[in-house]
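Bumping with the actual sequence this time:
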Amino acid sequence: MRTRPAVAAAEPGPPGPADGLRQTRACTPPGDDGPGAARGAVPQPPPGLATGAGQLVAVVDTGVAPLPRLAGRLVGGGDYLTGGDGLTDCDGHGSDVALLLAGAADPVTGLGAGMAPGARILSLRQSSGRFAVRGTDGTERPAGEIRTLAAAIDRAVALGASVVNVSEVVCVPSAQVDSAGGALREAVDDAERAGVLVVAAAGNIDEAGTCTGDPDLRPLPASYDSVLAVGAVDGDDVPGDFSVPGPWVDLAAPGQDLPRPSGPDGAVVRGTSYSAPLVAGTAALLRERFPMLTPRQVADRLRATARPSAGDGRTGHGVLDPGAALTAEPLLLTPDGPAGPGDRAGSPGAGRAPLPLATTPPPDLPAVAGVGAVAAVGGALVAALAGLRRRPRRP
């Protein structure tokens, strides 16, 4: 594998601050994640199967603040903006993603648990709408770039994550995918080879951003083969019209008008950023319950057990079904039917019998050469990762 700048960032020690960084807006940290914020927005898996215990899930985002419902399970992985531990969140986005993924239930109401409340969160801060970086040409761009996104994924693997959630996206013309995102492709492919599943938001259509809805554009990292790409649906499984469609979308999850986990009562969020952590959290449950499965087998199981949905390219194989993912048999499934000898799968067909409950907790996922991984993507689309020109708006 050829050496790239990301490799150095993956070595022990926190990342250094970004060159030319300046703060452009005041921080708006996440609100109190108390009783009013825990309102049961996340679809819950059947009790008693798995909680994500023993799994370290990386959230590559705007940072994650040390909120009460993440107490004792939040690990700082580094900050590619200002240096430090990654536990500062000026935008609130990364904290919301982490709460949807692994927040504990509210102690008063018992509601509002994230998908994998037993998992630990590894926070890697690599973007923010509150900061900008000045380029060599004197222009400023939003803080966060493809190079640091690749480095953050490398670092998540090096620090032992089993799942990586990336709720960030940049869309580039198909002809520029290799030149613009080569380091990022290597990072996600290396993660899969290391036994780590990368889950990424499919992206939101935004005429002012890089994902304009042009069919020639490819969302990165979501469109890479080794990444599980997640679109958004509403509570009735209707695809969100903002969700970027494409043949690379694997499945969808709720991501429209969700109560904001760290916001005041009545605040809502929408976007594939908030769909991805529900899938990443379910992946953490599967990695606890079935530690023998590879990342690709976990992804196959999630696709095979998804509820069918007419999503015109926005929902892939269907809508996330955590209960089916945790209980369907046989153990090895693909979306395409029974597996032959040497294949990864069995039939996902209707009338699946549940797998038996484990009588003892499964072992922690073993580290492969000291590595692991975790990931996710968010609502107002953290846009324009550095070094790429935005495509002009259509008339």
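The tokens above came from a reply further down the thread. The chain has one domain: 5-23+35-327.
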